[in-house]
Write a structure and sequence with these properties.
By secondary structure, this protein is α+β, with helices and mostly antiparallel strands. It has five helices and 22 strands. Strands 3, 5, 8, 10, 11, 12, 13 and 14 form an eight-stranded antiparallel beta sheet that branches. Strands 1, 16, 17, 18, 21 and 22 form a six-stranded mixed beta sheet that branches. Mean pLDDT is 82; it is low at 26-38 and 389-407. Belongs to the membrane fusion protein (MFP) (TC 8.A.1) family.
C-alpha cells in the first residue's frame, strides 16, 4: 500500500515537471540578449564645426520711450479779451501761423496816444532848435550872453531827448498792439485744450496752448553702470576705440515693424541714478511724418559694437553639466570629450566662449544628445551662418548675457 502511494507521488512529480518544461521553455522567436552585437554598434554621426576667432557683431537692445524734441508753452505777452482762435485744438501748426487774436482796442488807443506825444515832442524840439539858432550868432557878436546860449543849447538837447523818449513809447505801443496777434513760435502739434473764446487772459500767466515739436524726435533709454564699464573695458582692449559716430540706432515699433529712418546717439547722462543704478541716454531720430509720438514705447537697437577675437558656438552645442556650461570637443580618433567652458554674451550666432576653447578645435554642434564622453563619433562638417549686425540683440529681455558674462 505504501509502495503504491509512493509510485503515485513520483508519477505526479514527473508529470508536473514535464508540464513546467513545456510551458516555460524558450521560444525560437523570443529575443535573446545580443551583448556582443550591441557592443559592435557603429559610432553615432554628429555635426561638427571648426571654431575660429573673429570679430563678432554685438548689437544690443534696450526699452525706450519717445519724447518730443521740445515742448513750447504759448503764453500771451499782453492781456485782454480773447477774440478768436484760428486753429483746431490738437492740430499740427507751423512756425509763424496765427493762433489767437486778443482784443486790440486798448492797444490801438495807446498807440495813438504815443504818436500824439511824439508829435508834441517833435514840435518842442523844432522850437528849441529855432531858439538856439537865433541865440548862437548873437552870442558870437556879443549881443547875447553866454548864459543865454547855454540855456538855449540845454533846451534843444532836452527836446531831442524828449523826441527819443516819445519814439520809444510809440515803438512799445506798436509792439503791444502786434502782440494781440499770437503766432506759433515753432512747428508741431498743439495741445487739446486752450482757453475759450471770450475769456479774459493775463499777460505772461495764462497758458494758451502747448506746441510739441516732433521733428526730430528724442528716444530716451537707459543702460546699467555695469554695461557702461564693460563697454569702456572693451574699448580699452581695441586697437581703435569705437566712437559714438560709428554707432547706429534703429527703432523697433512692434514684433515685426521697424522705423525706416535710422538715428544716432545724441547724449548720455554723466551720472548714475542712485535708485535704479542706470545711466540715462538719448537718441535722436528724424520724424518728418510725425510717426513717432511722445510717450510711445519702443525698442532701441544699437549696432556698430563688435567683439574682436571672439569664438562663437551655436546654442545647441552647449549643454548644462555638473560644472556648468559644457561642450563636446573632438580629439584624436574622433573621440568626444566633455569640456566645461565659460560663456560670454549671447550674439546672433550663438554664445561667445570666453574660456575653455581655442581656435581650430572641432566642436559637436548637432546630435549632442547621441554623444557619450570618451566614445568615438562620426563627424560630419556643418556650415554655420556668420552672425550679422542686424540680428537679435545681445542684451535686453530676450537676450541677456550668461551669468557673469561681459562683452
Amino acid at each position: 500500500m505504501v509502495k503504491h502511494i509512493l509510485l503515485i507521488a513520483v508519477a505526479g512529480l514527473a508529470l508536473a515537471f514535464g508540464l513546467y518544461v513545456f510551458m516555460f521553455r524558450p521560444s525560437e522567436d523570443s529575443p535573446v540578449p545580443q551583448t556582443a552585437s550591441a557592443s559592435a554598434a557603429p559610432p553615432p554621426q554628429v555635426g561638427v564645426i571648426t571654431v575660429q576667432p573673429a570679430e563678432i557683431p554685438y548689437p544690443v537692445e534696450y526699452a525706450g520711450r519717445v519724447a518730443g524734441f521740445r515742448d513750447v508753452e504759448v503764453r500771451p505777452r499782453v492781456g485782454g479779451l480773447l477774440l478768436e482762435r484760428q486753429f483746431e485744438e490738437g492740430a499740427r501748426v507751423t512756425e509763424g501761423q496765427v493762433l489767437f487774436r486778443i482784443d486790440p482796442a486798448t492797444y490801438e488807443v495807446a498807440l495813438s496816444r504815443a504818436e500824439a506825444q511824439l508829435q508834441q515832442a517833435q514840435a518842442a524840439l523844432y522850437q528849441a532848435q529855432q531858439n538856439f539858432e537865433r541865440v548862437e550868432p548873437l552870442a558870437r557878436r556879443g549881443v547875447s550872453t553866454d548864459v543865454q546860449l547855454e540855456e538855449a543849447r540845454s533846451q534843444r538837447d532836452q527836446a531831442r531827448a524828449g523826441v527819443q523818449l516819445a519814439e520809444a513809447e510809440v515803438q512799445n505801443a506798436r509792439l503791444n498792439l502786434s502782440y494781440t496777434t499770437v503766432t506759433a513760435p515753432a512747428t508741431g502739434t498743439t495741445a487739446l485744450q486752450s482757453p475759450p473764446v471770450g475769456a479774459l487772459i493775463q499777460a505772461q500767466q495764462t497758458l494758451l496752448t502747448t506746441i510739441s515739436q516732433l521733428d526730430p524726435a528724442y528716444v530716451n533709454f537707459s543702460f546699467t553702470d555695469e554695461e557702461n564699464r564693460a563697454f569702456r573695458a572693451l574699448n580699452e582692449r581695441r586697437e581703435r576705440p569705437i566712437s559714438e559716430k560709428e554707432l547706429k540706432v534703429e527703432l523697433l515699433l512692434g514684433q515685426e515693424a521697424s522705423y525706416p529712418r535710422p538715428g544716432q546717439v545724441d547724449t548720455a547722462a554723466q551720472r548714475v541714478d542712485p535708485q535704479t543704478g542706470t545711466i540715462q541716454a538719448r537718441a535722436i531720430f528724424p520724424n518728418p511724418e510725425g510717426a513717432l509720438l511722445p510717450g510711445q514705447f519702443v525698442r532701441v537697437r544699437i549696432t556698430g559694437i563688435t567683439l574682436p577675437g571672439s569664438i562663437v558656438v551655436p546654442q545647441q552645442a552647449v549643454s548644462q553639466g555638473p560644472q556648468g556650461p559644457t561642450i563636446y570637443v573632438l580629439g584624436e580618433n574622433d573621440i568626444a570629450q566633455a569640456r566645461p567652458i565659460r560663456l560670454g554674451p549671447e550674439v546672433p550666432g550663438g554664445w561667445v566662449v570666453r574660456e575653455g576653447l581655442s581656435g581650430g578645435e572641432r566642436v559637436v554642434a548637432d546630435g549632442v544628445i547621441r554623444v557619450r564622453p570618451g566614445q568615438p563619433v562620426r563627424p560630419a562638417p556643418m556650415q554655420v551662418q556668420a552672425p550679422e549686425a542686424t540680428g537679435s540683440a545681445g542684451l535686453g529681455s530676450q537676450g541677456r548675457p550668461a551669468s557673469g558674462a561681459r562683452p
